[in-house]
C-alpha cells in the first residue's frame, strides 16, 4: 500500500474539497465517506469505491482496482470534515440517475429538509422499513454530505435516492400516484387512519413544514397525535413514525378508518 506523507498531495486536496463542497462533489460525481464500517458496507453493496486512505490495516479485501493508500492519523484528521474523525476515509462515485421511474409501493418525499443528520436518519429508516425510494425536492440537504452518510449508517449504499423537481412530481401526481403530507394541523386525519399503500409520504422542512407547492399535490394530510405541551416532532422522528405505520400496514393489512 502506497504511503502518503503530505497534505498537499493531489488526492488529499481532492478529499478535502469533497468533504467541504457540495458543488465540487456534484461536479466530480464523487463523494467522501469515513470509517472502516462504512467502507465494508460500501464494498458489500457493490458501491463504486474510487480511493481509500487509511492509517490502519483493513480487515477485509477491497474491490479490484481500488486505489488504497496509507497515511498517518494526523493527516486523516486534517482532511476529515467530521469532528470525531475515524482512521479511514474513502471516496465513491455518485450513482448515475437514469430516467425517473416511480415503482409501485410506498415512497417518501423530503421537501426542504435541510439538516444532513435528519436526511441521513430518514434514509436509514426508509431502508429498514422497505421503502421503495427516498425522493428529495425543495433544497434538501445533500444526501452525499459526509454528515448525511454517517447518519445513514450505510443506507446510502442500499437505498434508492432520487432528486425530483416540482414539474416531475406533478407528472407523477397526474399519473395516479397519491401524495400524503405530514402536518401538525388539527383537522388532519390521524396517522393510523390513512392507507399508505402505493403512496408517496411527504415530510416537510424542520421550520416551515411542507411548501404550498407540494401541499397542493397532497390528496390527504395526516397528523401524529402528540401532547399539547409539544409543538411538533423532529422531521426524522415524524418520518420514522409514518414509515413504520406504512410498513405495518403492508405486513398486516390496512386496518384504519
Question: Which key phrases capture this entry?
Answer:
seven-stranded parallel sheet, five-stranded mixed sheet, 9 helices, 33% helix
How would you describe the overall organization of this protein?
The protein is of the alpha/beta class. 33% of the residues lie in helices and 21% in strands. The protein contains 9 helices and 12 strands. The strands form 2 sheets. The protein has a 7-stranded parallel β-sheet, with helices on one face. A 5-stranded mixed β-sheet has the order 1-4-3-5-2, sandwiched between helices. Helix 5 (116-128) packs parallel to helix 6 (146-152) and helix 5 (116-128) packs parallel to helix 9. The longest helix has 18 residues, at 235-252. The radius of gyration is 20 Å and the shape is elongated. The model has no long low-confidence stretch (mean pLDDT 91).
The radius of gyration is 20 Å
Mean pLDDT reading: 91
Poorly predicted sequence stretches spanning 5 or more consecutive residues = none
From the 3D structure, determine the CATH topology of the largest domain: Alpha/beta knot
The class by helix and strand makeup works out as alpha/beta
Amino acid at each position: 500500500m502506497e504511503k502518503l506523507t503530505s497534505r498537499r498531495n493531489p488526492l488529499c486536496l481532492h478529499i478535502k474539497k469533497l468533504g467541504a463542497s457540495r458543488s465540487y462533489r456534484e461536479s466530480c460525481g464523487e463523494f467522501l465517506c469515513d470509517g472502516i464500517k462504512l467502507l465494508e458496507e460500501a464494498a458489500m453493496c457493490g458501491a463504486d469505491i474510487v480511493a481509500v486512505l487509511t492509517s490502519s490495516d483493513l480487515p477485509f479485501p477491497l474491490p479490484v482496482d481500488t486505489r488504497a493508500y496509507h497515511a498517518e492519523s494526523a493527516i486523516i484528521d486534517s482532511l476529515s470534515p467530521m469532528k470525531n474523525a475515524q482512521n479511514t476515509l474513502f471516496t465513491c462515485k455518485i450513482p448515475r440517475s437514469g430516467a425517473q421511474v416511480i415503482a409501485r409501493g410506498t415512497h417518501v418525499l423530503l421537501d426542504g429538509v435541510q439538516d444532513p443528520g435528519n436526511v441521513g436518519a430518514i434514509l436509514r429508516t426508509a431502508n429498514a422499513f422497505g421503502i421503495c425510494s427516498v425522493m428529495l425536492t425543495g433544497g434538501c440537504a445533500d444526501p452525499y454530505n459526509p454528515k448525511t452518510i454517517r447518519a445513514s449508517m450505510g443506507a446510502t449504499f442500499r437505498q434508492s435516492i432520487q432528486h425530483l423537481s416540482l414539474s416531475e412530481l406533478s407528472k407523477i401526481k397526474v399519473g395516479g400516484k397519491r401524495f400524503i403530507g405530514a402536518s401538525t394541523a388539527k383537522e388532519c386525519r390521524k396517522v393510523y387512519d390513512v392507507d399508505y399503500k402505493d403512496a408517496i409520504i411527504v415530510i416537510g422542512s424542520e421550520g416551515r413544514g411542507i411548501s404550498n407547492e407540494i401541499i397542493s399535490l397532497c390528496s390527504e394530510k395526516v397528523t401524529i397525535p402528540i401532547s399539547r405541551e409539544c409543538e411538533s416532532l423532529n422531521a426524522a422522528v415524524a418520518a420514522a413514525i409514518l414509515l413504520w405505520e406504512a410498513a405495518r400496514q403492508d405486513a398486516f393489512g390496512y386496518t384504519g378508518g
